[in-house]
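Troubleshooting entry. The earlier prediction with 4'-deoxy-4'-aminopyridoxal-5'-phosphate gave an output that would not parse, so I re-checked the input for stray whitespace and re-submitted. Clean input:
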Amino acid sequence: MELVKSRELYERAKRVAVGAVHDDFRFSDPYPIFFKKASGKMLYDVDGNEYLDFHMAFGPVILGHCHPRVTRAVQEQAENSELWGFGSTENECKLCEKIVEYVPSIEKVRLCNAGTDATYHAIRLARAFKTKRKIIKFEGAYHGWHDYVDMAVAPPADKVGMKHPVSTGMLPEAMDKTVVVPWNDIDSFERAVKENREDLAAVIVEPILHNVGCIMPKDGFLKTIREVTEREDIVLIFDEVITGFRHDLGGVQKIFGVTPDLTCFAKSLANGYAIGGVGGVAEIMDQLKPIGGVHMAGTYCANPISVAAALATLEELGDGKIHQRLFSLGDMIRKGLSEVLEDLKIKAQVAGFRSIFNIYFTDEEILNYRSLLGNDSKLFMKYNMEMRKRGFLFVAHPLKRCHLSAAHTEEDVRAFVEASRDVLTKIIK
Ligand code: PMP
């Protein structure tokens, strides 16, 4: 796929910006697409190509790009202030009231700018509260780029079971305090708790493993984690950065009926505007200054533009109708793709939950990251590139997921399924 203007811009941009991107994952071989506009479900690039977007910016854009209600709220807010940076506002209060109303475990909230901020601060809060140092994270989960958690996300086969760092330059002393456990493996989890309980402050969980597609927790897995953490007096943190507000306004904690002590959220709260937050029981949240001693700050935290966008997003999602429509579109696309795979007898399977879906090119039963080691990345990449040529955009990474938004229609779903049928038929010939 020749993108003449994108290539020209890449040649120019890469001199001043590494790889011409500002997030490693935005690069794709041989050069990134340069976009100029987004609207609803569509993306438009500088070469005049149009894409039906199933990426939705890694998930936040639940209402579709440039949703009129959100855009209007942002424009109106921009007339009054882009940033106060002092004191507080009624809008911040309203937003926290809404979050407390929706998310079962949250009594108090502190807003920040992104998911990484949120997980960092949740861990710091847990450490302060328990005056212990270690945390447990699960293999296959991503909680952001800081040194406490940026490891064992999608390690190569020979690094599975280790604290394989995602980045060079990470501090071994910080990594040392993180214990990595395979997902859906209660015995390993209980063993890790037993071995580390003296110094274990928190367990951080992506309650659905969406950073390697969609691996659901086995029946009772989250409940057992809750029971063990309660029994052993360990803070349970749910990282609902992807799941929060997307799968339900109350997050998956509401769906699964498991209540963590702290929750991290970001993405779908503000339909694409930069926001994040930590919420939880007052006893732990009150460790924050000015009541307690934990420092959590940021020039742009709860900036009025993002707060206005979040309030508008929640208003739009408030009656639950959009969620219901999204879930039925999700069911429809998963069913359609499963039929394609079955008809073509491809060793692959469709995964997903509610508005999220992906295809794994393996017929292994998928329990955790290890089950994905036989996933046929080459086949996925061919599928991804051919779909892109036909105007369907999703991330060129075999373990990333697709997101539906309120802007997508049944017709879009049918078109995606039919294009997949056509592409896969040609690829496997
Ligand atoms: N937690 C989870 C579950 C995530 O998926 C992500 C980002 N994909 C993060 C944390 C980090 O969020 P951010 O990119 O906003 O810093």
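This one parsed fine. The pocket of 4'-deoxy-4'-aminopyridoxal-5'-phosphate is lined by residues 58, 114-116, 119, 142-144, 206, 211, 239, 241-242, 266, 276 (CB under 6 Å).
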